[in-house]
Structures are given as C-alpha cells and as structure tokens.
Amino acid sequence: MLRACILICGLLLGAISVDAQDMAIAPQFEDARPFHAGVGRVKLNGVWGLVDRAGRMVVLPQYEQIRPGSEGIFAVNRGEPSLWSYIDATGKPLHDSSMKEARPFFKGWAAVVPYGTEWSLIKPSGARVAREGWTEIAGWDPPFAIVKSDGTWRVIHIGDFGFVNEVVNLSQEAAFVSEQEITSASAPLNRKFVLTSPAGQTIGQLYSPGHEPGLYLTFAMPTPHEGGVGFYPKVGAVGDGLVPVQFDDGTWAYFHLDRQQFVWERGYEGARAFHEGLAAFQQNGLWGYINRGGEVVVTPKYTRAYDFYAGYATMRQGDERGFLQVDAGGKISEYLAPQFEDVFRFQEGLAPVKIDGKWGYIGDGKTPDVDLRQSPIETLIPADP
User: Can you tell me whether residue 6 is helix, strand or coil?
Assistant: First the structure.
C-alpha cells in the first residue's frame, strides 16, 4: 500500500508525509545506516548488527562498531580498540587476522594497520602488499595509492602480485614547482586528488607526457594571483569534471578541469561537488541546485542540501529532513517533504530515517511490498535458548 500511495499521491499532491506504521522497516533502532549488499547497519542496546530488507536480523547486534560496507565486506570491532576484523554480509569472517585499524575495501584492497602503527594494504584473503611501513594511507585507486612515510607524501604503484614501486614524491615535486610543502592529500580518483599545503588547497593529477615512460605530478588549477600554483582556502571533490573552489573572500565558484577555467558566476556562499549532473549551492543563506550548464534547477530554499545518489538527495528545512528526487527528464521535486528528525541517503532502494527518537527505513517506491514490511522487533531477535 505504501508504495502505491507514494506513486499515486506523489503525482497528485507532490511530496507526502509518512506515518511510522507505513515504514519499510518500522522505527525501532537506536541508530541505522544505509544498506549495502542487501543489509543495513543497525544499533540496538548499544551494539551494532546487520538487518535485511524484510527487517530480519542477519547478524545479531554484538559489535561496538561496524564501518560502512564496501564490496560486500564490513569492518567490525567488538569493543577492543586494537581488534578489528572483516565479515561478509552474512556475518562470516573473511579470515582469521585481527588488526589495530581497518578501513572499507575499495577495488579489491583496504588500508589496515595489522600491528604496531604502520599501515598496509590488504586483500580480502588477508594477503598484504609486498612492501609496507607507511605512517598514513590517504587512499587507493588502482593501481595507485597515496601514502606517507618519513614525513613525506608519495604516490605508489602496486603491480601484479602486490609489488610496490614509488611513482612520485609529492612533497618534492610540489616544493620544486610551488615552494610549498604538502601537509596532507586526499584519496586519488582517476589520477586526481586534493593536496593541502600551508598556502591552501589545490588539485594535483598524475600525467604521462607520452614520449617517455613514467608518471609525473602536475597542478590542475591556475593561481588566483600572477604566477605560481593555484592554492585556495578550500577545494572540494572533483565531480563530473568540475571542482568547487573557495576564494579568499569566502565565496565559491566552479573550476572546469578540461577547459582549465572557472565557469559561470563567482559568488556562491557555499558549493558542493557535482553528483549525477547536479550540485547543491548556497545563496542568501539557503541551498538549491544547479546543473552542469550552471542553470538553477532548484531555487535556494533549504537550510541544507546534499548530493544526489541513485536519483535521490537528502535536504533539511529548519530542524526537519526530507528527500528530493529527479526524474528521467532532469526535473527535481520533493519525494518526501521535510518531516524526519534525521536521515541518511537512499542506497539499494532504502534510506534510514529517524522518527520520535527511533530509526527505521523508508523505501523509494520501486521495491516490492512483500519484502519490505515487517513485524515488531520482538520477532526479530530470537529468545535465549
């Protein structure tokens, strides 16, 4: 009934309100997070477990922490700060190893601290790269990772069988070009990453000149002043080839990486990265959306607005949260009016929402009713034998 009501009422009346009894999974949890691999992270009695789409507990609450799932794998901790491990979506351990730190997997590898204080990269099997000993790992995008050792940020290449070769010394290259020390770096994505120095932030990218082997570091943004490298107070993530950039006066604009120029008007009070062809921006204290042509597609009216994922975005009006949706023609409308105490984004057709202090899940109207409805929580947790 809920799915049909959403589809019909949404067409006739626009955004709707939702009663707690009409949730996909009824509000009953102390906390909840987006679904991944068919399960959602939920908290009961102070500990975390995994729940399926029908509201059944796949992994009983027992973990102090469960980190966001990736590639069907979750990093879990039972309360010991130095005892992390990985499980799959059914709760089965991946291997017998335990670690002092464990991050989500990305494209077959995850950053971990197996022992001591040094970081490594690990495969789901537990196999580690051939060379380790980094004090930090900013991120990994095959076959490159950005790591820190001996106080210096480096780009490394991980080849077949986990063999590691250094590609670029970021601090050395940056000092050579800009006379600025690199103090931190973001995860690489398509060979592009955010670099931070005492002068501010910029976008660095790896490139090959074509006529000689090897990769080199270049800076993808011009300076706001004459000469030098373009460092700005804040630089956002790259999305759809555009980067939100803050100027010294606090205003924001978007830089087009391919055109190597700022586009549209400068003067946004706030700007988020592009996602699915849309970006949230702030004007006169309120948030709206623009498309990749710089056209305003949602006039600023929200207290806060966030990125689109799978056709939906979360927003806030005052203290209440709701959801926006975009149709195939690019038209944005309110899917669920602001009414929730808190929310997280839709993933796999479900989104966590908070009502009267409890968390449950709302559906996106595209999933079958039969697998979404559930009975009270007492039926979800089996009694002790």
Answer: helix
